[in-house]
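S1.2 Input.
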Amino acid sequence: MAFWGGRSIARLAVFIGAAIASVAMLRLIPAAPVPAESGAPQYTPDGRLLLPRGYRQWIYLSSGLGMEYSPTGKPGSEFTNVFVKPSAWRQFVQTGRW
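S1.3 Output.
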């Protein structure tokens, strides 16, 4: 019986079976180990700052307007949000110190 552009159902079944077996074998390959979180900023080879892993789960602390701490800062010129890593927040809750 011809199916899908002249291919037989048997050939299609073999193709699907091979695809499923390939995916199953790929799942057996262990994932690369995740490096320990160093806390240090990471940069691309061209010097651009990379977003930290898991940054969307960071804890919101506060917002500020005009929080420049340099003599050349213009008061009220910058709006900032402050977030911390969950591990830093847990440490603060445990010890009361940053």
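S1.4 Remarks. The chain has a mean pLDDT of 76.
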